[in-house]
Write a structure and sequence with these properties.
The structure holds two protein chains of two kinds. Chain A is α+β, with helices and mostly antiparallel strands. Chain A has eight helices and 20 strands. Chain A folds into two domains: 225 residues, P-loop containing nucleotide triphosphate hydrolases (Rossmann fold, 3-Layer(aba) Sandwich); 109 residues, no CATH class. In chain A, the strands form four sheets. Chain A has a six-stranded mixed sheet, sandwiched between helices. A five-stranded antiparallel sheet of chain A has the order 13-12-11-14-20, with no helix packed on it. In chain A, strands 15-19-16-17-18 form a five-stranded antiparallel sheet, with no helix packed on it. In chain A, helix 2 packs across helix 3, helix 2 runs parallel beside helix 4 and helix 3 crosses helix 4. Chain A starts with 5 loop residues before the first strand and ends in a 5-residue tail after the last strand. Chain B is mostly helical. In chain B, 77% of the residues lie in helices and 1% in strands. Chain B has a domain of 174 residues: MetI-like (MetI-like fold), CATH 1.10.3720.10. In chain B, strands 1-2 form a two-stranded antiparallel ribbon. Classes of the chains: A alpha+beta, B mainly alpha.
Chain lengths: 369, 588
């Protein structure tokens, strides 16, 4: 298997006064699928261009398999890039497009033809070889861009929002395709997207970026269930964020007091970064919010009551929007799998809400950690 | 860190190398010669003097010429813009196939030499020309009227010469107007007249203004039409400059007239800039959020009211027409508009086409043509003067095309791809050869070439023609580069292509058609250029236009009709080939 590790050390890029990428360090293991996730302008595409060698960093170093490539030109890096709009050469046939990197590497003609055909097989489009890019659909062009990238077996493949222009159904299909190819080839992949769902489905690890810096890096589960900041909690999936104060810290977690409540409750979190008296947020995911008629549910750690504002059914999930009785607390959302039959609750009904201690995550309030 | 700095330094050198040739060319063969000429106007044998200007304003002769020049230019501009507008509009709305046809006739006329077209009008308006014969046969007049050498004939020639320019300039803007906007206006309750005057027309106004100034500035520097079609009273200012240089070698006075001409052009541009902003001319497209004009306050309100009135009147008239129009496709142009456009295209193309039968006739240039002979073609082809002029024009044209591409393409890359400071100023400088009246450049170059021993040499002529052709190359290449997706270059690099390989396999093949068309543009500009050739050939080694000019000012003979026909066919072929190339590139 051809694949390389990638190490980024204190890499930094400015455009005039604008910091596109604050000094950033990142390690990508051999064969890993790492996703750079973040809103537009968060620096993920800048980081990708720097890795690809299409932009020059102001500071820092880039190492591929421990070799410094910071100042090597793009064509010397053995990196493959799949561009957002595919960047297929309009004046070449599909075949010539795919053979282009082989031609640049002076691969013999017969060998190039064999490998081109093979790459077309891999993306399941062997019949389009003689056509021109404009004769293909968006999804097909996307596959060709992928084929052109894997044909020369680069040690690292960078993908810049490769599915951004496709419709939902095609996107789901291509996600599976890319995962399959990743499994088959074992290549290291750095993938850029602003779609959190896509990041969750595909990645080994997600690197969530915000305002030119890394906000949190970890497995999808890590980021989803143990977000380290309000930004992460908000960006990945829906969340209920409740203001609270730390009462005490011990080895298993924290005792916290929700705003406008007297009784303490438990929450999980890294005890070493919180101090007693500190204002924090407690995050509960919608599907972990247990809804019942008023009363009941003794083993629950947290407890609130609120009035049902609205019910929305979006396919497999049903969302309940609830206004807490406690003054000043933001609107909450609870979710449960959609069941057939009439809705169990009526709008305006008073509901009790609770959650298990393990589902309440303490997040430091404010930005820095 | 050392490495990035080295990259930066490298970049600075590359940039300098890309821009320097063009800057050098313009400084040496535009700024310096024109500056010299202007200097000569205030610098006599005994040092600084205003004698030339005293002479200029001593009598009313020169001011009268200036007034005539302004009058002819202004009327020409008005007619060109007003009649060109519907033509450009129709071309911008019809389907692709008919657009190609319409555009072909406009382009053919645009590229047919000014000389050929002016000559055609001489024949057409002559005592035994088509018009007189037609009027007599219709019984409107009994004996031939003298239609030539008056204000009317100059105007006809000028409009014919500059209408294609007006159409093409307005078309560039109209093609970028969102076609859904008038439709949106219709869904919002605007009748067709109101939708046109309140929505479409204001959006097309930058094109109208650009066409107006281009035509006016070109007209003011014209001499071919007034010299060939005008009488004594239609002398224009550039003719005075030619007289001063060719007959009396009075450089100082020629310089003083040039200053006057430049001054007028400058005022026109300053007024344009104040009213509309110069950026509307050079910018690819006006920024979406920019206000379309700087007219403000009461003037704007008055303009708005006028447009509303025009809209209301048009709708009133439309309602009077039979109601069958209601069910036609709103995108389809009306019969009236189509008829008008075809009549205008006929008027601008017909004179040259009528040359063809006359060039094969035995009855001289009298209408109708009689008999059939190849005599005139034999005369031309056996004359070394003509054949050498043809070869020289080809040589100079190809040389100009190559040099302009070589110098202009890197500069276009620089202007589009890099973030150099003062881009607008650089662009204005590069485009200045179009703005400065050609005659002033020509006289200045003549003076400088004379001292460098370049008069009469093909190389000198190529340099001079490159100066006036290079702005077109830069503009065309900039447009081509703007539409080029740089990610393709990045893709090539990421796939392992070195810079040279990227240029060779990706950039140039994709830009090929655009490069070919800008080469043809430069070639055609040189091939048709008379003003610089008039002086820089120094009486020997004439180019085709120079030879044509010498002959036509001497006598009007059927041999010239034969040359006109050859030129017409040659240009037609060139446009055809260019169009084929463009279409083949677009099909990929």
């Amino acid at each position: 298997m051809v694949s390389s590790s990638l190490r980024i050390h204190e890499l930094c890029k400015r455009y005039g006064d604008f910091v596109a990428l604050a000094p950033t360090s990142l390690d990508v293991a051999r064969g890993e699928f790492l996703t750079l996730l973040g809103p537009s302008g968060s620096g993920k595409t800048t980081l990708l261009s720097l890795i690809a060698g299409l932009a020059h960093p102001d500071e820092g170093r880039i190492l591929i398999d421990d070799a410094d490539v910071t100042h090597s030109p793009a064509y010397d890096r053995d990196i493959g890039v799949v561009f957002q709009n595919y960047a297929l050469f309009p004046h070449m046939t599909i075949e010539d497009n795919i053979a282009f990197p082989l031609k640049m590497r002076k691969v013999a003609d017969t060998e190039a033809r064999r490998r081109t055909a093979e790459a077309l097989e891999t993306v399941r489009l062997p019949h389009v070889a003689k056509r021109y890019p404009r004769e293909l659909s968006g999804g097909q062009q996307q596959r060709i861009a992928l084929a052109r990238c894997i044909v020369y077996r680069p040690a690292i493949i960078l993908m810049d929002e490769p599915l951004g222009a496709l419709d939902k159904k095609l996107r789901d299909q291509m996600q599976l395709e890319i995962k399959r190819i990743h499994r088959e080839l074992g290549t290291t992949i750095v993938y850029v997207t602003h779609d959190q769902e896509e990041a969750m489905t595909m990645s080994d690890r997600i690197c969530l970026m915000n305002a030119g810096a890394i906000e949190q890096i970890g497995t999808p589960q890590d980021l989803y269930f143990r977000p380290r900041s309000v930004f992460v909690a908000d960006f990945l999936g829906e969340s209920n964020l409740l203001s609270a104060t730390v009462r005490g810290v011990d080895s298993d977690g924290l005792d916290v007091v929700l705003a406008a409540q007297a009784a303490p409750s438990r929450a999980v979190g890294n005890g070493s970064i919180f101090a007693a008296g500190e204002p924090i947020k407690v995050m509960v995911r919608p599907q972990n919010l247990v809804v019942g008629d008023a009363g009941g549910g003794d083993q629950l750690a947290g407890r609130l009551s609120g009035r049902l504002l609205d019910v929305m059914i979006s396919g497999s999930l049903t969302r309940l929007y609830i206004a807490p009785e406690t003054a000043g607390m933001p609107q909450l959302v609870a979710a449960h799998p959609t069941r057939s039959g009439a809705a169990p609750y009526e709008i305006g009904q008073l509901l009790s809400l609770g959650w298990h201690a393990t589902d309440a995550v303490a997040i430091s309030d404010g930005k820095g950690i | 860190m050392a490495a990035p700095r080295a990259i930066q330094r490298n970049l600075a050198w590359t940039r300098a190398a890309m821009g320097a040739p063009l800057v050098l060319l313009l400084v040496l063969f535009l700024v310096y010669p024109v500056g010299q000429l202007l200097l000569l106007s205030v610098y006599g044998e005994s040092g600084f003097t205003l004698a030339q200007y005293r002479q200029l304003f001593a009598s009313s002769v020169y001011l009268d010429v200036l007034l005539i020049t302004l009058k002819i230019s202004l009327v020409t501009t008005l007619i060109c813009v007003v009649t060109g507008y519907p033509i450009a509009y129709l071309i911008s709305v019809v389907d692709k196939k008919r657009k190609t046809t319409l555009l072909f006739w406009v382009l053919l006329s645009f590229w047919t030499s000014f000389l050929v077209r002016a000559f055609a009008w001489i024949v057409l308006l002559g005592r035994n020309g088509v018009i007189n014969k037609l009027l007599i046969s219709l019984g409107i007049i009994s004996s031939p009227a003298s239609l030539l050498y008056n204000f009317g004939s100059v105007l006809v020639g000028m409009v014919n010469a500059l209408l294609p320019l007006a159409v093409l300039t307005m078309l560039a803007v109209m093609e970028n107007i969102d076609r859904t906007l008038p439709r949106a206006a219709a869904t919002l309750g605007a009748r067709p007249g109101m939708a046109f005057w309140k929505i479409y027309f204001p959006l097309s106004l930058p094109g109208v203004a650009a066409a107006g100034i281009m035509v006016f500035v070109t007209a003011i520097g014209f001499f071919i039409v007034p010299a060939l079609l005008g009488g004594r009273r239609e002398t224009m200012i550039t003719q005075l400059i030619i007289d001063q240089v060719q007959q009396t070698m009075n450089w100082g006075f020629a310089g003083a007239i040039s200053v006057l001409l430049l001054f007028v052009v400058f005022i026109v541009f300053a007024a344009y800039d104040r009213l509309l902003g110069l950026s509307t001319m050079t910018g690819a497209a006006a920024p979406r959020n920019a206000t379309p004009s700087r007219l403000s306050g009461p003037l704007q309100k008055a303009g708005d009211a006028l447009l509303t009135l025009l809209g209301a009147i048009s709708d009133r008239i439309l309602r009077l027409l039979p109601s069958r129009r209601r069910d036609r496709n709103p995108d389809q142009a009306g019969m009236g508009l189509q008829a008008f456009v075809w009549i205008m295209l006929l008027i601008i193309s017909a004179p040259t086409i009528l040359m063809i039968p006359l060039s094969f006739g035995t009855g001289g240039l009298n209408w109708p043509p009689q008999g059939f002979t190849l005599h005139w073609y034999e005369t031309v082809l056996s004359s070394p003067l003509w054949t050498q002029a043809m070869l020289r024009s080809l040589l100079v044209g190809v040389g100009t095309g190559l040099l302009a591409m070589l110098i202009g393409t890197p500069a276009a890359f620089l202007l589009v791809r890099s973030d150099i400071r003062g881009k607008a100023a650089w662009l204005a400088f590069i485009l200045s050869p179009i703005v400065v009246p050609r005659m002033i450049i020509a006289v200045g170059l003549f003076y400088v070439f004379a001292r460098m021993g370049l008069v009469g040499s093909a190389f000198g002529l190529i340099l001079g023609h490159t100066v006036v052709a290079v702005p077109y190359v830069v503009m065309t290449m900039m447009a081509v580069l703007r539409s080029y997706d740089t990610r393709l270059d990045h893709a090539a690099q990421s796939l392992g292509a070195r810079p040279i390989a990227t240029l060779r396999y990706v950039t140039f093949p994709i830009l090929g058609a655009g490069m070919m068309s800008s080469f043809l543009f430069a070639f055609a500009t040189s091939f048709d250029e008379l003003t610089i050739a008039l002086f820089a050939t120094g009486g020997l080694n004439a180019t085709l236009p120079k030879q044509f000019w010498d002959e036509v000012t001497l006598q009007v003979s059927p041999a010239i009709a034969a040359v006109s026909t050859c030129l017409f066919v040659f240009m037609g072929l060139l446009i055809f080939v260019a169009e084929r190339l463009r279409r083949r590139a677009a099909a990929r």
